[in-house]
Write a structure and sequence with these properties.
This protein has an 8-stranded mixed beta sheet, with helices on both faces. The chain has a 4-stranded antiparallel beta sheet with strand order 2-1-4-5. It has one domain: Rossmann fold. The model is unreliable at 1-6, 276-280 and 340-365 (pLDDT under 50). The protein is built from 15 helices and 12 strands. The protein is globular and about 65 Å long. The protein is an alpha/beta fold. Bound molecules: adenosine-5'-diphosphate and magnesium ion (MG).
């Protein structure tokens, strides 16, 4: 697995900057027959300008719910129950509503939705989407907006005039993803959030989209969050990684260090799985068992214990807190980090061979 980052110096510089987005102790619940159940529990994370953060975990771990919380856009029957999301120059978006919230979306936070492949209205051209976006944000200089969109599009290798005249069905998957990024950034958002940006794409388009994300990120000094179930994707682009399981951020830290020295048993299994089988569904296939559903998440104790090779009695009773076990490295696990913290190979050994029918991500077409 490669662990390239655009520039280690840039990433280091980013770490000293104040956060563009500061998520603190965020809990998001969905209303169900069994009451309010948490899909995200007590999550804290910072996004900094100049830094790409990768949020990785299996399908169902709460990544999209967390990402949508940054826009205060968790769909009903979900709601943010505790915590805050401070956005630089805006304030706590969990307290905004109505017009201010709508303006924040787009102008401060650019969002490319999961399944953005189909997020454009099929009856409107890209140009019409752009003008509608401008009007909804009360942009006076619509010509300037179109110029900026064309400039962004050209820099992403698109034929801007053609794309603005096109309908969704006239664009390839990779082109739609680029259009999504243009629309996310055209109002000068400093934060770019991409939910599963490469999931529906073939390998060549995946590489092209990641390349573009890296370039626009760097050129605009964005704070970028890439949400994906694919460890391979984040290991290529992220400066910082946050690993999510069962609604918790179970580990986070600088990407290169975390990939070389994974500490949480779940992270080790993910990396082991990805390293062993190079393939797009490797991650989901190589981990035994299923990610927890909302009802099991509400139990006491560590959410990963049922699938954990290092589970101990204490894991049944107490949910481990996220603590800094080494400078800049955080994890939520009761096991001693020094205690046989094996590398990815050892983690792989703890994971049974994949079963073909076990591919239950449900995220690929
Ligand atoms: N609208 C909803 N109603 C009820 N439960 C939901 C809803 N959306 C997501 N969930 C549940 O919340 C959990 C997290 O989902 P999600 O944030 O989509 O995870 P991910 O993006 O990591 O796949 C899952 O258990 C999912 O079933
Ligand atoms: Mg998702």
């Amino acid at each position: 697995m490669t662990t390239q980052t655009p520039s280690h110096d840039e990433a280091r510089a980013a770490r000293g900057r104040p956060a563009e987005v500061s998520i603190r102790d965020l809990t998001v619940v969905y209303r169900t027959d069994q009451g309010d159940l948490p899909a995200v529990s007590h999550a804290s994370l910072d996004l900094r300008a100049g830094e790409i953060t990768g949020l990785v975990g299996e399908s169902g771990s709460g990544k999209s719910t967390l990402a949508l919380s940054l826009l205060n856009a968790v769909p009903s029957p979900g709601r943010i129950s505790t915590g805050s999301v401070e956005v630089a120059g805006i304030g706590d978006v969990t307290r905004l509503d109505g017009r201010r919230l709508r303006r924040t979306r787009g102008s401060a936070l650019g969002y490319v939705f999961q399944a953005s492949q189909n997020s454009l209205n099929p009856l409107k051209t890209v140009g019409k989407h752009l003008l509608d976006l401008g009007r909804s944000h009360e942009v006076e200089d619509l010509r300037g907006l179109v110029r900026r969109a064309k400039d962004l599009a050209e820099r992403m290798g698109l034929d801007a005039d053609r794309v603005l005249d096109s309908y969704q069905h006239e664009l390839s998957g990779g082109m739609r993803q680029r259009v999504g990024i243009v629309l996310a950034l055209v109002l000068n958002a400093k934060v770019l959030i991409l939910d599963e940006p490469t999931t529906a794409l073939d390998m060549i388009s995946q590489a092209a989209v990641l390349d573009i994300v890296r370039t626009v990120h760097r050129e605009n000094q964005l704070a970028t969050l890439i949400v994906t179930h694919d460890m391979g994707v984040v290991s290529e682009v992220a400066d910082r990684l946050a690993v999510m399981y069962g609604g918790r951020i179970v580990e986070h830290g600088p990407a290169v260090d975390l990939l070389q020295r994974p500490s949480h048993p779940y992270t080790r299994a993910l990396i082991g799985a990805t390293a062993r089988i190079v393939g797009d569904t490797a991650l989901a296939r190589a981990l035994p068992g299923r990610p927890p559903d909302l009802t099991t998440l509400a139990r006491h104790g560590c959410v990963f214990r049922d699938r954990c090779p290092s589970a101990m009695p204490v894991c049944e009773e107490t949910d481990p807190a996220l603590v800094e076990w080494s400078p800049g490295r955080f994890r939520a696990c009761h096991a001693d980090p020094a205690d046989g913290a094996p590398g990815p190979e050892a983690a792989t050994a703890a994971v049974p061979a994949p079963r073909a029918q076990d591919d239950a991500t449900g995220e690929r077409p």
